[in-house]
Structure formats: C-alpha cells, structure tokens
Specification:
- By secondary structure, the protein is α/β, with parallel strands linked by helices.
- It folds into 3 domains: 160 residues, Thiamin diphosphate (ThDP)-binding fold, Pyr/PP domains (Rossmann fold, 3-Layer(aba) Sandwich), CATH 3.40.50.970; 156 residues, Rossmann fold (3-Layer(aba) Sandwich); 190 residues, 3-Layer(aba) Sandwich (Rossmann fold).
- It is 39% helix and 16% strand.
- The strands form 3 sheets. It has a 6-stranded parallel beta sheet with strand order 2-1-3-4-6-5, sandwiched between helices. A 6-stranded parallel beta sheet has the order 9-8-7-10-11-12. Strands 14-13-15-16-18-17 form a 6-stranded parallel beta sheet, with helices on both faces.
C-alpha cells in the first residue's frame, strides 16, 4: 500500500483520535490517506495552536497527542509546543513534511534541518527514509513519548517517501509494567518517616500524570501527615482535605514556607527539578525523600537524601504499609499554620471592588464551576494567584504550565480539554497579552461548535513583568499596550462577547455563559495594584507563628 496509507494504519493502531494541524503541499499524500480514516483532522489557524492542543491531549489522556505541519516555517512553529510538552512531560508526536530527498528541482527552497533542530527539545526526532520503516518508527515514537518521563517526539516524512509503495506490516502495541522500588529503599523510607519529628508530604506533577490519587489519599488518611503540592501537582488529592496546607506557588517566603521550613523531613512524591522549585533545600536542614519513576536530578537547591525509584503509586502504598510507629511525631504546628494560611488566602476574596482583584475573580470562578470543571491558564501573574487561591478537587482540573511557562497556550489548551471532555465545563483564563498570541484559535473553537468560556484579564500590559519590575525597584517602563475591542473581536469570529462593568454583573455573566451554548469571551477589567504590596512586601516581612 502507499506509504501514507500505511502511516495512517499505524496511527490507528496506536488509538489516535485526532490530528491537530495545518497541512501543506508536502503533506497532501498524507491528507489524502487521512480522509478515509476515522481519525479526525482538527484544522487549526496556527501550528503553535495545534502543538499546544496535541500536548494537552497527551497531558489529559496519557497517550501522545498528534499534530501535523508542513516543512520549513510550518515545522519551526512547533518549536515552542515541543518545548512545552518536553518540559511539562506531556506525550506528543509531531509529524512534519519535507521536500523530496531522492530528487528535487527546488534547490534549498524552504529547507531547514528540522530533525537536528528538534533533537535538543524532544526525546526522539528522525526522518523516515523508507516507507517500509513507517510502522516501526511510529511504534518507537509512541513508546518513547509515553515512557517516563513523557515528552515530545518528531517524525519527518519527505514528500517522495510519502508516495512510495510500501509493504503492509503493523507492530502490536506492547505495554510494559513499571518496576517496583527496591524493598530496602521502601523500608529505609518508612524508617526515616518514623524517626522524623515533623514529616510533611509534597505532591508534584508526576503524581498528577499517573493518577496516584488513591494511594496518596490512603497515605494521608493512615498517617495524618499534612500535605502540600506544587503548581502542577494541584488536585491529585482533593484540596478540601483537612490535612491540606496549600500550594507552593512561590519558591520561598510564602506563609506555607513557615511549615516547610519547620519540617525536618519532606516526602517529595512526583516532583522533578524542571518545575519551578516549591522550596529551597539547604545543607544540614530538612531531609528529603524523593519518590518518583526516576532518580532525582541533583542541583544546588535539590539534593535528596534518599531516592525511592519505581512506580509511584506502588511505592507510596508500600511505604504506607510499613509505617508502624508514629510516637516521634509532633504535627500540632501544622494545624496552627494551616489556620494562618487560610486566613491570609481568604482576605479580599469577598472584596467586590471593580476592576476585580484576582483573589475575587478566583473565588467567583470556584463557586460557579462544578467540582470536575476544568480551568486552563495562560501564563501571567494571575497564575500565581490561581496556584495559591484556587482549590482543586480532582486531578488535572487546573491546567497551568510551571515548566516552560509559555504564553499563548491557554486558549488552545482549553479547546482540546473541551474536545475530549464535552460533558464538562471548561474556562480558559488568559491575560490580554497571552490571549492575543493565539487568539485566532477562537475561529477553531467556533467551527468545532464547542461550548466554552474565555475570560480575558484586561490590564493593558504585561502584568507579570510589571510586577517583577516593581519588585526589583525599577520604574514602570516599556510594558504597556492598547488592546482591540475584545467584544467586537469575539463577535467577528462568531463567538459571543461580554464586558461586565461590576462584580455582580461578572458573576451573573459567568453563570449564564456556563449554561449557554457557544463560545463566550468575557473582557474583564482586572486590578493588579496589590501584587507588589502582597507578594513582594507583605510576604517578605511576615513573621511565622511560633
């Protein structure tokens, strides 16, 4: 059969549901083969949007999301999504086109060495030079994309290879069981926890990937050890749990760090150093047990005393069953600090001034959204507020990026989240800067007849950098711009535009939008005037309770 027919058969064999992307002339054989498949092509308005959608598919399902581009500029537009998936541990396959490699009459026109370009930001990147190799290359790409740590892979399919006649062969999808941690490590971890005076549990992104919620909840229930999470570990255990302390939205100086710094042992489950540090280790202070699929990458702020390497859920369950003696523990301080954290975070959540404070925005969204509703964030200073203040009740219900931390991913991520979770409410919260980086995907959402809400936090500038600028003592300079009329902009795509003028009007608008079909865009004025006074001044001047 034709090589591209074989390629589609190989993708079907892997269970692919969607291919996100923008085909070019070098993909036309592939496109012709795809039209006869049950795999749905999701045509996007930019390759970057397609890549973010594919990465989000991988994040939410554990299976590689697939995206397609042509050669040259189409393929280079995948670089940011590739880095997003690679750093965020999201399985994703990019398929890119290329000019004929056996004979070409176009010289070097549009030719870029895509494979070499992508090798530093993927787990695997290769050019297919023979149609008969397609099944093995596809199987290997999927295996590597899903293998811990998950990430991005790329297959380049030249135009002449795509048209070749190839021998039909499909490789079976063979899974593998992750090994259990060594028994001696489990026993040593249990003994370290028993001997600690103030143990504390940290939940990171790796735990969110592999659905370890049950094992971690049982650990917490049986030991009564309090827990906190990283930004990408939010929701693994229901944050309404009475032992939940908070989220490490900052690396230091938050109220939560009073508890972290007092602890003499942190059981760190699923974290790696690619995510922004939730705390800084210091010599001769808190000990750390690293529980993950792979050993810790040591750096100057993270150097665990014990690696428990193996399937995370099994490791946690085995550690739980081996903890017998709790007599050394004194966890009373954590109860006191939890009350202080709660008091601090709840401040301003009922403040109905307008423009809205981010704390108030988060309070309203949490009240309006169901337990399983999904919020996707772009990247901006509001991400810090959501990490600190937004309570997650289920895994992967707050999709933020704390690895590459790129702008422009929030809207495409929401489109994919809604596509694969049609029965759930999905809200995309974007800054005005990040929204405009991929705002053209509104057309994609409207064309797909999705029901979703996009909230644009409008402050007319790059708020995250303005906050940093002020915190470093610089004058306000170079970070402000003018926005389009977002209501008219949304309506020009066939979406519904809204611009509430008060706290009450925003609540009513959001409630109505969540219950009404279509793509809704809410242009919301936001007040960031307290960012500096709270996050830079108050937190650094705080005094931990005794």
């Amino acid at each position: 059969m034709k090589a591209t027919d074989l390629f589609i058969k190989a993708l079907e064999n892997e269970g692919v549901e969607y291919i996100f992307g923008i085909p070019g002339e070098e993909n036309l054989d592939f496109l012709d083969s795809l039209k006869n498949s049950d795999i749905e092509l999701i045509l996007t308005r930019h390759e970057q949007g397609a890549g973010f959608m594919a990465a989000t598919y991988g994040r939410l399902t554990g299976k590689p999301g697939v995206c397609l581009s042509t050669l040259g500029p189409g393929a280079t537009n995948f670089t940011t999504p590739a880095a997003y998936a690679q750093l965020g541990a999201m399985p994703m396959l990019m398929i890119t086109g290329q000019k004929p490699i056996k004979k070409s009459k176009q010289g070097r026109f549009q030719i870029v060495d895509i494979v070499d370009m992508f090798k530093p930001i993927t787990k695997y990147a290769t050019q297919i030079v023979n149609g008969n190799n397609i099944p093995s290359r596809v199987r290997e790409a999927f295996r590597l994309a899903m293998e811990e740590r998950p990430g991005a892979v790329l297959l380049e399919l030249p135009e002449d290879i795509a048209a070749e006649d190839s021998v039909y062969r499909i490789f079976n999808v063979v899974g593998s069981r992750r090994p259990d941690a060594d028994t001696s490590c489990i026993l040593k971890a249990a003994k370290m926890i028993e001997n600690a005076k103030m143990p504390l549990l940290l939940i990171g992104a790796g735990a969110n990937r592999k659905r370890t919620s049950k094992a971690l909840t049982e650990f917490i229930e049986q030991t009564d050890i309090p827990f906190f999470n990283t930004q990408m570990g939010k929701g693994v255990v229901d944050e309404r749990h009475h032992h939940f302390l908070g989220t490490a939205a900052l690396s230091d100086n938050d109220f939560l760090h009073c508890a972290i710094n007092r602890s003499d042992l942190i059981i760190n489950v699923g974290h790696d150093v690619i995510e922004k540090p939730p705390f800084f280790m210091e010599e001769d202070r808190t000990k750390v047990i690293h529980v993950n699929f792979f050993p810790a990458e040591v750096d100057e702020v993270y150097f665990p005393q014990l690696n428990v390497v193996g399937d995370i859920a099994t490791s946690v369950s085995n550690i739980t069953s081996n903890i017998q003696n709790k007599s050394n523990w004194d966890l009373s301080y954590y109860d006191r600090i939890k009350s202080e954290i709660k008091t601090h975070l709840s401040k301003y959540s009922e403040d109905n001034r307008f423009p809205l404070l981010p704390q108030r925005l988060i309070c309203i969204i949490r009240k309006e959204l169901s337990d399983d509703g999904i919020v996707t964030l772009d990247n901006g200073v509001y991400k810090v507020w959501f990490a600190r203040n937004y309570s997650c009740y289920e895994p992967n219900t707050l999709l933020l990026d704390n690895a590459l931390a790129t702008m422009g991913a929030g809207l495409p991520s929401a489109i994919c989240a809604k596509l694969i979770n049609p029965g759930k409410n999905v809200i995309s919260v974007c800054g005005d800067g990040g929204f405009m980086m991929n705002s053209q995907e509104l057309e994609t959402a409207v064309r797909l007849n999705l029901n979703m809400v996009v909230i644009i936090l409008n402050d007319g500038g790059y708020g995250m950098i303005k906050w940093k600028q002020e915190g470093m003592g610089f004058e306000n300079f170079g970070l402000e711009y003018k926005n389009p009329d977002f209501v008219k902009y949304a309506e020009s795509y066939g979406a519904k535009g809204h611009r509430p003028k008060s706290d009450e009007e925003f609540k009513e608008t959001l409630s109505k939008c969540l219950k009404t079909d279509g793509v809704h865009v809410i242009d919301l004025a936001v007040d960031y005037s307290m960012n500096h006074s709270i996050l830079n001044v108050l937190l650094k001047e705080k005094t931990c309770i005794l």
